[in-house]
User: What shape does this take?
Amino acid sequence: MLVARNLHYSAGGRQLLADISLEIRPGELTVIVGPNGAGKSTLFSCLTGERKPRSGTVTLNGRDLRRFSAPELAALRAVMAQSALLSFPFTVQEVVELGLARAGTNSARSRLIAEEALHRVDLAGYGSRSYQTLSGGERQRVQLARVLCQVWRPVAGGGPRYLFLDEPTSSLDIRHQFDVLEIAADFAKRGGAAIAILHDLAIARTYADKLIVLENGRLHSSGEPAITLKADMLKQVFRLSDAHLARMAASISAPDHSSAVATARL
Amino acid sequence: MTETVAGSELYPPKRPLFGRAVLRRAAIPFLLTLLTLAICASVVIGPSDVTFPDVLALLDASLRGDPAGDGLRNAVIVYDIRLPRTLLGCLVGAGLAVSGAMMQGLFRNPLADPGLIGVSSGAALAAVAAIVLAGSFSLVIPSSLRPHLLPVAAFAGGLLTTILLYAVATRSAQTSITAMLLAGIALGALSGAFTGFMIFRSTDDQLRDFTFWSMGSLGGATWREVIAILPFIALLFAALPFVGNGLNALLLGETDAYHLGFDPQRLKRWIIVLTAAATGSAVAAAGAIGFVGIVVPHMLRMAIGPDHRLLLPACALLGAALLVGADILSRTIVAPAELPIGIVTAIIGAPVFLSILLRRRAVFDF
Assistant: This one.
């Protein structure tokens, strides 16, 4: 279990996180939501071990995250960051196999795992393409395949593994947004822990087991999405007006507009 | 889904003659053959009339016992002149090419080259300063240490320059290639001026001329130079198996490299020290030879891709072969005089550099 206790983080004289305590449980897909600048990415990077909180602790399986070496952490958790630029002409296959760089997997097995991961993100047959020729959405899915390789089995020797996704759907079409969340939910169902930052509350509501709502660096609320996602919260945290909410409600009840997104909303 | 953004990539996809997998398998055997040929040619070709049959006869004589008469003269030419010169070319070429590839990985930019960004000129300045100062304080330094003074000083100069460049070009984990190249120009000009000044002021007979320090030369190579730079280049080679994976991960960015299980800070420190050691010792032995570190990795990346586990050893082989080949040209084109080898590498290298810019101006912009 990944546990944060009383996290504080500040940078450039600004308090970015204040007194955040939470638990990430294996078997759950935890989604972090909040308006721009709420501290989602800062919290995320404290949980991955990339940033050290000013005070407070993050423990993984009861052990302080700061005491893990980079290879130890890499065996337990994989992180998909927001953007990945590559200025060198790697093939898709090579990028995905980077996920296994620390695993000591032999090359035949690496290729197999990478191909399977590419298949999983709907990019089967893309292995020999140059990463630089892909569209933004395709690149995002290649990066997802890479982090999937790193924690291919949700539960391995060291116990459950953690899959961190920072806005994994930002460049994706609607179909692939669902695919990515299916992958994360499936990872959790098979015993791993998945943590994602999302902006689309409808998708968050559909897939999340637990929602963490941040507001100005503070934990506003957390819990099941059905309980957390209320009109009061949207008004307060996301500063939606009654008119916004009415428009959202209208788009749901409109007879000719029956997309999955709309029905999932509220 | 299949459309690509025009001109957005550095190496536009072309239909290759051979697939990358084939090229990757063939790379090391092919380059080994190429290097062997270059070494043979370099031992056989020269202004004196020692030819291939003479070399064979010499080898035969050496194996059976001491050569005599005509063989003795040939032995001096082959063993004491051509062989050390060829081996020095191999070590310097391999060291420069591998350093170039490592720096390009570290800066995540195919234009980062120890010669272009001023590391070589920083090393040259330190080497010249060491010679001049050692002349003034000759009593302080025991004579047994003098052969090592030059490479160590050049290493220190290269290291300081690299650290300074990295500090100037990197702000909050982002390396600005523009800042790096501009700082490199400034540092290069500064150390060029100081080097020129020191050479101008120096009356030391040992001090080789400005051409040597700015264009490089393998002329006058002896076993002493070979042995002096061997430990530095050997250190670089010994590190290759340990940095390949890390450099691959680093191409994704420092954060991603950390998440993949590598310590980017430690990796960066190692790469800076290793490249400074190799570049510095190469400059101490053969002057500042440009463009090897940019041409060799660039050509190989087009053929076999950027995977450093294969790229770095391949760079060592091709770098060695290229420099030995360039040296053959430099001492035969205007024989019996010699062209500075930097002229030959610049003629090959500058067009490659320009072609990188033509293909993607954006390498400047991030």
Observations:
- The first strand of chain B starts at residue 170 and ends at 171.
